[in-house]
Amino acid sequence: MSDPNFDDSDPVPRDQTETRDVSRTPEGQETLTMVEHALDERRGLLAYQPVVQARMTNRIAFYEGFIRILDEDGNVLPARSFMDVVETTETGRRIDCLALELGLQALAEEPGLRLSINMSARSIGYPAWLTTLQRGLRGDPAIAERLILEITESSAMDVPDLVSEFMSDMQARGICFALDDFGSGYTSFRYLKDFFFDIVKIDGEFIRGIATDTDNQVLAQALVTIARHFDMFTIAEEVESSEDARYLIDIGVDCLQGYHFGAPETEAPWRTSRLIRHA
Hints:
Blueprint: H1 16-24, H2 26-40, E1 44-53, E2 60-70, E3 76-77, H3 83-86, H4 90-109, E4 115-119, H5 127-139, E5 147-152, H6 153-158, H7 160-171, E6 176-182, H8 192-195, E7 199-202, H9 214-229, E8 233-236, H10 242-250, E9 255-257
Parallel strand pairs: 2-4, 4-5, 5-6, 6-7, 7-8, 8-9
Antiparallel strand pairs: 1-2, 1-9, 2-3
Helix pairs in contact: 2-4, 4-5
């Protein structure tokens, strides 16, 4: 779920076997306890990063909200320090709950906001996460049309039938779904026919330095072609230079995200009198 610091500059290992091994170590248990205490005390917030339109990069299509977990002194705990420990545990599900709750709150506060929130497919079967979602939608059903749920490619492949059914139900209510880290090595492409993701986010591994990397150019073009075939909107992650942005625009990517256009900020744009502009 896609990252806390869940952001595209802080890649998180997602191998399930490795996660289980790490969580059993004394260091892993200490980290798990630290994060659990932070969640018990609701020491978390969202940071917002813009996703811009490729053809008009001064226009924001939506923001992605990345969960931040804070230690007892208020310092941000980087994702790499705990995500490999909590990813497959209940603590990982609780992080998803907090991220969703904060995202729904932001959407309720700002009617002009469109926001994506990260989740693991494992959270679909977690009662507290589903309760959080249903409560937010009951409070204002129109929020659904401004909410995007980003599901990591690796977790989607773990429970494809559950993901497909859940997406179908929620899309009928207006929620959009993004497949995060597209191309990162987990996808069984036959599932794309069944998932009907609205958006695919091309993994930053294929984007960084793409203007001069011929291998990444071939791979990115193939991913864009696949997404277009299935009528999926494309977003390139980790765009860090104008040269890379120009190349991605030329091959038909729909939206761009990365430090070239803005870092995640914990000061919400609508609270600092900056205009939120959408596609």
